[in-house]
Inverse folding.
């Protein structure tokens, strides 16, 4: 077993806006090995993006408060200086954002924007070497290099996301965080982009954290899965473990799968999860999921978090299975 | 129809929400108090000091410094001017003049600009073209010069001043309201109302105007202070209100020749003008913050 | 956009003539007789008619107007009712003074306001931002004629640092007028820069830049500022235009022989040709400024630029 590339230990993030405290991420533990692809799944507001931004220390300075440890290549990212952190961003860890439409600066050419990240981390490169690298990156993501002099508004959404991917991969990062990279795209373009990302990931051996709410993409792309709810990881394991229907699952995971259409079993309607995702400022006591849980028990409604039950690498945070084992 | 009702419902609860959020900002509370004082002075000017005191001239009590008692044993808190008029009375009645000028001209220009802007947005085509070309014509002359020319042509007096200020502020209002109205007119609930055969006038009142309220309120508040300032500027130049009417800008101009002997004559009206403009501006800023929390802290 | 700009340039003379016509009609509205003002208190009917004929005032207003337009086309701005000399001379003498004041004031405004505004945005929620905010709010509410007066009382009369009025003392005599004109504009400019920067700093592409490992100064000055320039330029251009025309009170207060002062003088003396010439000049400057703003938009924003290049795109709805 190789050393973990990334290890998140007991990470919590709180936002304070206008006196209201939002507990966006609560005691999250995650680890990732080199070359692995981790799917971080959950609804909007589950804390996925916050977790990702914490890794890059890109949370708003004045309003957020971070606790815990994030080890990347043995270095705690939360304690290093801002200068050291800048050297990590874009070079060792890079990120692809949800909305390619707004994530590129409208007043610079895409070539300049790809070139920026190359120059930041390789200040010794000559201009023509940077230029070659830009061409190479554009080719890699399937854009003709001569388009590098064009501006973002001349690209379609899918093309912009390719540019974002080119920027993210330009410095051969060890870890790529993709925050819902396809949500803003058309379905057909989604498939293209995901396919391309998977190929590039295989080629370059980059570790990836893929944030999504689309279980289909996870099944296609990931080695490991972590399901987030209310700022916590309620279930985590390998793709096979989490997707295996015969195994025990967190009720929320069951709910997620229940709300997907299934071609092989023709049911009359989908079974959605009742209720709404709680806002991070109004998380319930006890198990965060209990108000919506079909298998809710008395002990779920109060007290601490439910215990984590592990079956090898497969962890579930739920009273249901704790009881069974006891 | 349920779809088209949504924005109205939202707006009604919004009013309470905005009032609440205003009361939670110290700056807004101070600004509200400031505006309330000016309004109070303006409305109850006659109760506080009879108008006759503000225009009564007396050679015997000329140029008294603030806080002096005159030969009749009467205290002049802010002193008297070169014609022996009590400055406090003139400041109070000046508040009435200022509010008349600022509020009425703003109301007129808001009503006209909203109607015209809605017509632009709803009817489009040549109506929009004609209105916007006229706006272009007027807006290529600086607003101050427009007001100057109109005042010069119509002569001194409050009604003339109102016409001048209204016309000079119209182009900007129309442009701003129109740009918002255009986006609102493209919204689904307006299009569904059109599809349901609603008359333009109905759509305007029912859908456009409620959604324009925020931009109208914010711009309107700012315009009140701009117009008070413009009115005072015109008064300072000698093109504002008619002679005995107490008006801050005119008072200041009157004190010019006594700048050295009686500084309070130019300091006081200017200071009052500043504080009034400051309160109204701050209220406008806070309103903007309250309407759109996203813009919080913006200018 | 190109079409729109060309249309605008072509429309300019037409706009100006309409403005002139409106002013012609407006100033003739109150029926003051300029001839009477020009004559000595006792005059004969012949003298009156001769003078009226000399200035072409015996013709209907519309004809007067067309004669004036004809004169303009020949480069003749008309004859002043007051000085009885050509208006052109007076106006050409004053324009450089007004433009000089406005250019210097705008330049100082940008030099001080831009860095201050950017700093406020960067240091949002800090005392620096709060203090700048409060100060600029106060300055923004001060009427310039009063501010000028206070400056006069303190610095000219009290301390004797600067001359009270006129421009005879060279650069020194411009300090107070420019400071008076500058402060309220500067206050609003800082607020404008700050809000434009805050707008841009909130954008997603700023987060992208940070994620790329850009330094904070690069994020602010390279990524955000260029985007924020659009509203900033618009505002600065507007300031420049209103400084030329709106310096009326400051010019009057400090007796600066600029174009704004002349407008007031012309209005007070019913000197229609001078008034018209001044308004024409002010309008031309305003329109030219607007054009410069439009073009600088294209220079900064590739989205606007591309609409300049390909005319087939729809013209912007915003006028």
């Amino acid at each position: 077993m190789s050393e973990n590339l990334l290890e998140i230990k007991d990470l919590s993030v709180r936002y304070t806006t206008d006196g209201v405290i939002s507990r966006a991420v609560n005691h999250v533990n995650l680890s990732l090995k080199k070359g692995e692809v981790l799917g971080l799944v959950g609804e909007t507001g589950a804390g996925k993006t916050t977790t990702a931004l914490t890794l890059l220390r890109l949370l708003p300075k004045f309003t957020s408060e971070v606790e815990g440890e994030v080890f990347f290549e043995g270095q705690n990212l939360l304690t290093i200086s801002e200068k050291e952190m800048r050297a990590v961003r874009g070079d060792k860890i890079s990120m692809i954002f949800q909305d390619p439409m707004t994530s590129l600066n409208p007043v610079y050419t895409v070539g300049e924007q790809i070139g920026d990240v190359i120059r930041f981390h390789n200040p010794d490169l000559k201009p023509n070497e940077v230029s070659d690298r830009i061409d190479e990156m554009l080719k890699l993501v399937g854009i003709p290099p001569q388009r590098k002099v064009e501006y973002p508004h001349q690209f379609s959404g899918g093309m912009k996301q390719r540019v974002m991917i080119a920027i993210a991969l330009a410095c051969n990062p060890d870890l790529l965080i993709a925050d819902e990279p396809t949500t803003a795209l058309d379905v057909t373009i989604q498939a293209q982009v995901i396919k391309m990302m998977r190929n590039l990931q295989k080629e370059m051996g980059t570790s990836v954290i893929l944030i999504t709410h689309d279980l289909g993409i996870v099944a296609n792309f990931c080695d490991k899965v972590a399901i987030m709810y209310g700022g916590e990881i309620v279930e985590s394991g390998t793709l096979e473990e989490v997707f295996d229907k015969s195994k025990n699952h967190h009720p929320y995971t069951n709910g997620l799968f229940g709300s997907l259409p299934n071609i092989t079993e023709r049911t009359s309607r989908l079974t959605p999860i009742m209720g709404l995702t709680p806002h991070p400022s109004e998380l319930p006591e006890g198990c965060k999921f209990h108000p919506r849980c079909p298998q809710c028990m008395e002990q779920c409604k109060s007290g601490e978090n439910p215990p984590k039950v592990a079956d090898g690498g497969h962890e579930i945070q739920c009273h249901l299975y704790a009881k069974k084992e006891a | 129809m349920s779809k088209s009702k949504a924005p109205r419902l939202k707006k009604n609860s919004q009013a309470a929400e905005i009032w609440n959020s205003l009361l939670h900002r110290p700056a807004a509370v101070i600004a509200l108090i400031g505006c309330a004082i000016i309004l109070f002075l303006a409305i109850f000017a006659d109760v506080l000091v009879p108008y006759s005191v503000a225009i009564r001239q007396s050679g015997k009590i000329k140029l008294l410094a603030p806080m002096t008692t005159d030969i009749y044993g009467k205290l002049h808190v802010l002193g008297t001017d070169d014609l022996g008029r009590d400055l406090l009375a003139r400041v109070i009645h000046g508040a009435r003049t200022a509010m008349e000028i600022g509020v009425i001209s703003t109301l007129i220009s808001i009503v006209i600009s909203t109607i015209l802007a809605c017509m632009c947005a709803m009817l489009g085509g040549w109506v929009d073209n004609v209105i916007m070309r006229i706006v272009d014509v007027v807006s290529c002359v600086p607003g101050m010069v427009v007001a100057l020319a109109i005042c010069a042509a119509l002569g001194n007096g409050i009604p003339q001043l109102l016409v001048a200020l209204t016309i000079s502020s119209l182009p900007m209002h129309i442009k701003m309201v129109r740009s918002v109205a255009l986006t609102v007119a493209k919204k689904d609930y307006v299009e569904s109302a059109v599809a349901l055969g609603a008359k333009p006038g109905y759509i305007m009142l029912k859908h456009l105007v409620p959604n324009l309220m925020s931009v109208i309120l914010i711009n309107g508040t700012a315009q009140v202070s701009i117009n008070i300032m413009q009115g005072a500027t015109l008064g300072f130049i000698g093109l504002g209100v008619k002679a005995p009417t107490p008006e801050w800008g005119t008072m200041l101009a009157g004190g010019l020749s006594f700048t050295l002997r009686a500084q309070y004559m130019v300091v006081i009206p200017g200071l009052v003008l500043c504080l009034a403009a400051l309160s109204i501006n701050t209220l406008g800023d806070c309103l903007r913050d309250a309407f759109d929390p996203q813009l919080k802290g913006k200018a | 956009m190109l079409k729109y700009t060309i249309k605008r340039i072509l429309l300019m003379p037409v706009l100006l003539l309409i403005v002139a016509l409106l002013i012609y009609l407006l100033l003739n509205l109150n029926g003051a007789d300029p001839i009477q003002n020009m004559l000595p208190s006792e005059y004969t009917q012949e003298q009156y008619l001769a003078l009226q004929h000399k200035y072409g005032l015996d013709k209907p207003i519309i004809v007067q107007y067309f004669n004036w337009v004809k004169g303009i086309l020949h480069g003749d701005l008309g004859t002043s009712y007051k000085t009885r000399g050509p208006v052109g001379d007076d106006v050409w003498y004053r324009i450089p003074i007004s433009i000089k004041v406005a250019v210097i004031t705008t330049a100082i405004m940008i030099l001080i306001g831009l860095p201050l505004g950017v700093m406020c945005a960067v240091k949002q929620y800090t005392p620096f931002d709060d203090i700048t905010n409060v100060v600029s709010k106060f300055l923004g509410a001060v009427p310039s004629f009063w501010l000028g007066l206070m400056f006069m009382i303190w610095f000219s009369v009290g301390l004797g640092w600067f001359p009270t009025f006129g421009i005879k003392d060279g650069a020194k005599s411009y300090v107070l007028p420019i400071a008076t004109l500058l402060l309220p504009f500067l206050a609003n400019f800082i607020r404008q820069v700050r809000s434009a920067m805050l707008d841009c700093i909130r954008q997603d592409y700023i987060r992208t830049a940070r994620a790329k490992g850009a330094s904070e100064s690069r994020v602010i000055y390279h990524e955000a500022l260029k985007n924020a320039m659009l509203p900033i330029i618009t505002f600065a251009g507007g300031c420049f235009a209103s400084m030329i025309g709106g310096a009326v009170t400051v010019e009057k207060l400090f007796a600066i022989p600029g174009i704004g002062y002349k407008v007031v003088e012309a209005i007070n003396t019913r000197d229609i040709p001078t008034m018209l010439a001044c308004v024409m000049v002010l309008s031309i400057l305003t329109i030219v400024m607007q054009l410069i703003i439009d073009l600088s938009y294209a220079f900064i924003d590739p989205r606007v630029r591309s609409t300049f290049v390909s005319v087939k795109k729809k013209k912007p709805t915003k006028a």
Observations:
- Residues 1-10, 295-299 of chain B have pLDDT under 50 and may be disordered.
- Chain B touches chain C through 51 residues (CB under 8 Å).
